[in-house]
Amino acid sequence: MDQPKRHYNLVYLMLCCTVAAFGGLLMGYDSSIISGAIEPLSEYFQLTPAETGWAVSNIQIASLVGCFLAPKISDKLGRKKSLVITAILFAVSVVGTSLAPSFIFFIIFRMIAGLAIGLASVISPIYLAELSPSKYRGRTTALYSICCVGGQSVVLLTNYFITNAIDHPQMIESGWRLILSSAIVPCVLLLIFIAFIPESPRWSVFRGADSEALKTLTRISNADHARSVYKEIKESLNCTDSSKKIRFTLNRRTIPLLIIGIGLAVGNQLSGINVIQYFGPTLLKNVTGSNSNALFITFLLSISQFVGVVIGMMLLDRIGRRKLLLLGALASAIFLAYSFAAFYLQFTGPAAVIGLFGFMLFFGITWGQIVWTVLGEIFPTDIRAICVGISICMMSFSNFAISSVFPVLNSNTYLLDIFHGGFPLLLFSVFSLGMFFFTWRYVPETAGISLEKIEDIVLQRFYGDKNIHSHTAALPPKDNINSL
Question: What totals of helices (H) and strands (E) does the chain contain, helices first?
Answer without folding.
Answer: 24, 0
